[in-house]
């Protein structure tokens, strides 16, 4: 019977055990061979029973196997020591899910003495649940015992052919890794929030830098940074630049006070912002002077737009809260690239057209002369 088990072991045992199995099988067969030779009369020594001699040889083979090949010594002890020294917890479970063996690390991870685990089901409900799900893939389990622990759980089936003998559960403590990841996530989130806060402050500061604090319109700096850049880079095939100056604004301040003058400036700014497109740029460049840049706008379109603004500004509605019914502004219009390809050139041409409107009686719009014309063209 032992010989049959050894023959079976040669087929299913790992390679490191097969040499020892061969020696054990040889030791077991020697007495059989001696007895067979004696009973069959094939013994080379007539009348001598070789069975006792073969038992002696069996002892020699077993001694060789025990002391030279380290039978039941080197590999099993080495494996046992390795299992005990492992930092990962190892649990051996029978088909019913009861623990039949455990290494010291498993006891430490589960917060229980190792011997108390033997013969018992898994002590943690989360591990019981993992027993049903972790066959397909590794999973993570949170164990709340003496301390918060996150375990990486891996299951390996122990089988012999198609017969499942049990399962091997390997537990790895990944608590520090997950806590470090959580701390890193929180640090990244805090850093992101701080960066967004700084960016918001920078945007707010930039708005304060490029906005006129009284009217909310862009200022000369924004005009020079944005409009000049767009013109220089050729990002507009055509554009109209309008320079506006409120007529007799000093009289408004003198008669009604600077608060009323500020309200007039705010009223005109709101009118221009309400009457222009998203891509248009409305700027207050100083005092009662405004510049409006109209990308993609030609002469007739620009004149019509500015005329609508002038007419609306000349008819102050009661809800505006101003102490008079009529206002007026003069405007000069230049065209890009007909009158120039740089902002300063366009401003100078618009200023010339503006003063032509002032000399013509104020509250009017003038278009700067085209290259083939000799005088400023009044739009009205």
TrEMBL record:
The chain crosses the membrane at residues 21-38, 50-69. It catalyses: 2 GTP = 3',3'-c-di-GMP + 2 diphosphate. Residues 81-120 form the PAS domain. It is an enzyme of class 2 (transferase). Residues 237-370 form the GGDEF domain. It comes from the Bacteria. This is diguanylate cyclase. It comes from Gulbenkiania mobilis.
